[in-house]
Amino acid sequence: MACPLDETIGTFTDEFRGDGGRASDGSSQFESVRAVLERRAVWEFLSAGVDNRHAMTTLRTPGPTIGVVGGGQLGRMLAEAAAPLGVEVVVLDPTPDCPAAPVARDQIVAGFDDEAGIRELAARADVLTFEIELADQDVMDRVSEDTETPVHPKPSTLETIHDKLVQKRELEAAGVPVPPFRAVEDADDIRTAIDDYGAPVMLKARTGGYDGRGNVPVESKANAEAALESVAGPAMVESFVDFEREVSVIAVKGDDETATFPIGENVHEEEILRETIVPARSSEAVAERAHAVARDVLEVMDGRGVYGIELFETTAGEVLLNEIAPRPHNSGHWSIEGAQTSQFEQHVRAVLGWPLGSTALRSPTVMTNLLGDVSEERPAQLDGVDEILETPGASLHWYGKRQVRPLRKMGHVTLSAGDADASAEDVLEGARELEAAVTFRT
Q1: A Pfam family matched by this chain, by name (predicted)?
Q2: Global pTM value
Q3: Beta strands in 254-345 (DSSP E)
Q4: Which end of the chain is more exposed for a tag (fewer CB within 10 A), N or C?
Q5: Interior angle at CA 178, CA 175 and CA 183, nearest 5
Q6: CB atoms within 10 A of CB 390
Q7: Strands 272-278 and 264-269: what pairing?
Q8: CA–CA distance from 193 to each of 212, 220, 224, 280, 319 (Å)?
Q9: What three-state secondary structure class fits 174?
Q10: Cα–Cα distance between 206 and 80 in angstroms, integer?
Q11: Strand pairing of 127-130 and 65-69?
Q12: What whole-number distance in Å separates Cα of residue 38 and Cα of residue 42?
């Protein structure tokens, strides 16, 4: 019995063959057209399989291709998660041989706002996504509309996330609890905030900040002018939060479903994430509130995918939103070994419109980042990995970055307990010992 998919492709290519079209190298143009049609048709079959929740999701070869703007470690781990599902990944990144290049099908070397490069990416993909907020939302919106290649999460969400002030306003309007905040036009606005909120306050660059960059604590009115100059751009100011701990929830928005991972506790040093402990050492009531906030955030966000939702647990037991990343997040890396389905596989499933997997915790898990403990940039070499490789439950992830820089994220180590009832404290102690055993060669 003939397959409708084969009949459709066959009819089109027969008509095309009748034109006698030849490529400049003498090959038949219809052969490449047929290959593209096959991939597009497979994608339509796969998508149709999940539009109806009672239908089966069918895997075929070739499978769908995801185009990823950004080729850092997140793109690398996304490609690693996609491969077992028969999904191919093409990345776009300005750095040749970026971390994702060895595991992706291909890399397009182009800037994150390079429209020609993103158009090429769209031509080779069934859906576009991004692993870095530097992706240009206007370009992606335009390319998506012109090529009919969907983008998830939507460019409108990327636009909201880009500007922290816009982000906070939209979330506050939706009832998501956030710290008191206001826009900053000049140093007097900071001084007024200190009058209203008390000192210190947190001055934040509205765009471009990550890993603590662009965040400046202002201890007094006398420091307002210097703090504003250090941000060097549009800014906002927030009340300083007296928090018990910083936590995060990795949340997933699918086609007709959502999911949240267990709450993680994040430990920062110099504003950079050092380790994530799962489950967080929070009360059950706080964990429930954190998941409720995460679900409310997903209602505001437009488009499928994984969202990293950073939160404050206050000393009063409240949960306040800090920031959102519309992509897999550093504080979710533990899920590769520690959860039934990793955040990266969930992102693949979500952007393709496939059913989401279980987010259940396998056992208490700690992720610790391997940060460049160097004073200046140099070729990357890591010593002391034997102890990690020999430890049961430990997993080493090396991102393949050629150069190590001070506090650069070069990799991470995950340690999972062998017993689901084990103490997170015991796992944390073991993870810290493993992290201390490695060093970047001097």
Answers
A1: ATP-grasp
A2: 0.86
A3: 258-260, 264-269, 272-278, 305-314, 319-325
A4: N
A5: 110
A6: 8
A7: antiparallel
A8: 21, 11, 10, 32, 22
A9: coil
A10: 33
A11: parallel
A12: 6
Name the residue with tokens 């007094």. Answer: 220
Which domains are seen in the chain, by residue range?
Answer: 65-151 (3.40.50.20), 180-239 (3.30.1490.20), 243-440 (3.30.470.20)
Asked if residues 311 and 163 have their Cβ atoms less than 8 Å apart, the reply is no
Binding site: residue ranges?
164, 204, 238-241, 246, 268, 322-323
Cβ–Cβ contacts within 10 Å for residue 237, how many? 28
Question: Cα(first)–Cα(last) distance of the chain, in Å?
Answer: 66
Report in angstroms the alpha-carbon separations of 326 from 14, 206, 270, 287, 310. 43, 16, 23, 21, 11
Pairing type for strands 65-69 and 106-109 reads unpaired
pLDDT by residue for the chain (442 residues), tens only, comes to 444 444 444 444 444 444 444 443 444 443 444 444 444 444 444 444 344 344 567 777 789 999 999 999 999 999 999 999 999 999 999 999 999 999 999 999 999 999 999 999 999 999 999 999 888 999 999 999 999 999 999 999 998 999 999 999 999 999 999 999 999 999 999 999 999 999 999 999 998 766 667 889 999 999 999 999 999 889 999 999 999 999 999 999 999 999 999 999 999 998 899 999 999 999 999 999 999 999 999 999 999 999 999 999 999 999 999 999 999 999 999 999 999 999 999 999 999 999 999 999 999 999 999 999 888 899 999 999 999 999 999 999 999 999 999 999 999 999 999 888 888 888 999 999 999 999 987 5
- What is the distance between the alpha carbons of residues 94 and 107, in angstroms, rounded to a whole number? 9
d(CA 212, CA 215): 6
Distances (CA, A) of 396 to 62, 371, 436: 31, 13, 14
